[in-house]
Amino acid sequence: MKASPMEKTAREIAAHLRESGHIAYFAGGCVRDIVRGQTPKDFDIATDAKPENVQKLFPRTYAVGAHFGVILVLENGFQFEVATFRSDEAYIDGRHPSAVHFSSPEEDAKRRDFTINGMFYDPVAEEVVDFVGGRADIAAKLVRAIGDAAQRFAEDRLRMLRAVRFATVLGYKIDSQTWDALVANAASVNKISAERIREELARIFLSPNRMRGWDLLDSSGLMRAILPEIDAMKGCKQPEQFHPEGDVFEHTRLMLQFLPEKVSVPLVFSVLLHDVAKPRTAVVDETGRIRFNGHDRIGAEMTEEIMRRLRFSGAEIDATVEMVRQHMVFKDVPKMRVA
Length: 339
Prior knowledge:
- The chain is an alpha+beta fold.
- It has helices at 5-19, 29-35, 51-57, 105-110, 134-139, 149-155, 158-170, 176-185, 194-206, 210-220, 222-226, 228-231, 248-255, 265-273, 278-281, 295-309, 314-326, and strands spanning 24-27, 44-47, 61-65, 70-75, 78-84, 86-88, 100-102, 120-122, 127-129, 142-143, 173-174, 283-284, 290-291.
- It folds into 2 domains: 1-132, 2-Layer Sandwich (Beta Polymerase, domain 2), CATH 3.30.460; 227-335, no CATH class.
- It is built from 17 helices and 13 strands.
- Strand 3 (61-65) and strand 4 (70-75) form a beta hairpin.
């Protein structure tokens, strides 16, 4: 596979570090992609060079996380995170370690989230450096936490959503011990920022494999914690003549399969939330029929509340809310005539 301009530049940075007497490996997601035979979208570099040494070796750098050993290197119009091998002390805020210690490649690998993301690649020897069994788990199509899964999730609760995202996007299973820890800790996911939650949710539901993501979010308890309004759809019955598929929750789930592979945030979230007000508006009329009067209007209001809570952009909120407000119009499309 021919190297992209970005990969060539990453190799040049690693080579310069090596020529200066340092270890330099590709790290993280780019190695996962290389092992899977995919073209990486970006390249991170791990090294034993201290941050101040990295800054001396390259003319254009930014200390984006020098406290954690991370320097941004700008070369040939690309930017690369160059991080010093480190080990972390206890995490005090569910995201950041209280202190870091510069360490060895093996210790650095063991602090990472999942085995599939914990490998290094030596661009000089053209070899994968794997201390955590990542290659075996890629072969087995398995998302497995490195070390103690509960500890990994306690360090950064976003990792629970990342596990679901990787399983969704890659089509992998989640290792049983990792899954058990995820389920046990799912209720704590809201301790992280809404912006970080939103970003992972969007990646999950923008994936063509989004029904798998829905099922994992549901069965893990993450859906209940993040989107209780969707969880409330369970058991909300609908008229069988119009909805033989079952309750509102199952109806919404099945709607996902009718979406095209590539979707926008407003489209997929309008599908997720179009019937969000049905549990709140459900009544049985004098004929015994279940009705949801005004669920489109109330659903639009609820959609705006939910998307603001998750810090979506104003443009995404406006487009999604309008689609939810107007979604009942589409049922009459087959009856319409061409003007």
